[in-house]
Design goal:
294 residues; elongated
């Protein structure tokens, strides 16, 4: 088994996925003669290399066999069943088979709740929410994403960064706005900014507030400002846009990346100023935009 797996790894390192597939086929044949654990592992490896080659039906078949095998060994509520169910959901998502993807992500989430695997659970819930949105079931998408965010905020930074949580809140906010739940959308963003600020204020034993934490505050300010603009709270939106811009300048004092990053923020800031009828300030921002490097 190990020799075949080593050949597969070398093939993957050389970007020869077809050769890796053949090596994993050999590893699987050998594993079937050993035990179910080895067999499940090689089914997963073979399924993944098939997925990477867009051989989705073959990939799904191998993942399904692996799920059923691990279920027969350990029962439903085991980490490997959750892991393999999630992987099968990803294949169905790649195929744009949204109903099947939903089914497998729901199973993965259910297993991961029972096994109390917070990080993997958040991942499955994030994927499930996206699939539900594809199925135009925004109510289910919102429910899955709210649970995902609740779990994500309990995770340490090395498992889920504050910026990831902020992006998830922004996606949630857009769905809430589509559902007409405007007050909920605004509260979601305000809570997100509070969360990002709390993360920024935390201090690790080895370092002070990191660039990532600063970026999370800046991003949260921007998404709150965009939400306020959508709700026509133009004066407050302009104020928060400016705070986000100041945070970005503080974090990125030099380089073209700053100019590229500032341009969309300044455009939205200017629009908010115009909407708030703060035309003199809007003209100042327009002049600022004209001076940015392209």
């Amino acid at each position: 088994i190990q020799r075949a797996k080593d050949r597969a790894k070398r093939a993957i390192d050389g970007n020869d996925l077809a050769a890796a597939e053949q090596a994993y086929v050999q590893a699987l044949a050998a594993a079937r003669k050993v035990d179910q654990m080895h067999t499940g592992g090689e089914l997963n490896n073979l399924a993944e290399v098939c997925r990477l080659q867009r051989k989705y039906d073959a990939s799904a078949a191998y993942f399904l066999e692996a799920v059923e095998l691990m279920h027969s060994v350990y029962g439903e509520n085991h980490g490997l069943v959750g892991f393999l169910s999630h992987n099968l959901g990803r294949v169905r998502k790649d195929q744009k088979d949204w109903k099947e993807a939903q089914r497998w992500y729901e199973r993965a989430a259910a297993v991961r709740r029972s096994t109390e695997e917070a990080g993997p659970l958040a991942e499955s819930l994030a994927e499930l929410s996206g699939v539900c949105s594809r199925l135009a079931d925004l109510t289910a998408a919102v429910a899955a994403m709210e649970e995902c965010i609740s779990v994500s905020e309990t995770l340490p930074p090395d498992q889920c960064s504050a910026a990831v949580v902020v992006r998830r809140r922004w996606q949630l906010t857009q769905w809430l706005l589509q559902l007409g739940r405007t007050a909920h959308a605004e509260t979601t963003q305000r809570n997100g900014l509070q969360y990002a600020l709390e993360r920024q204020n935390q201090r690790d034993a080895a370092q002070s507030a990191s660039r990532t934490r600063l970026d999370a505050v800046q991003l949260s300010q921007w998404t709150l400002a965009r939400t306020l603009a959508k709700l026509r709270k133009d004066n407050e939106a302009a104020t928060v846009f400016r705070a986000a811009i100041d945070a970005k300048i503080t974090g990125e004092l030099q380089g073209n990346d700053l100019h590229r990053g500032l341009r969309p923020m300044l455009n939205e800031y200017r629009d908010a100023l115009v909407a708030a009828r703060l035309h003199e300030q809007a003209e100042e921002v327009a002049t600022w935009l004209g001076k940015l490097k392209t």
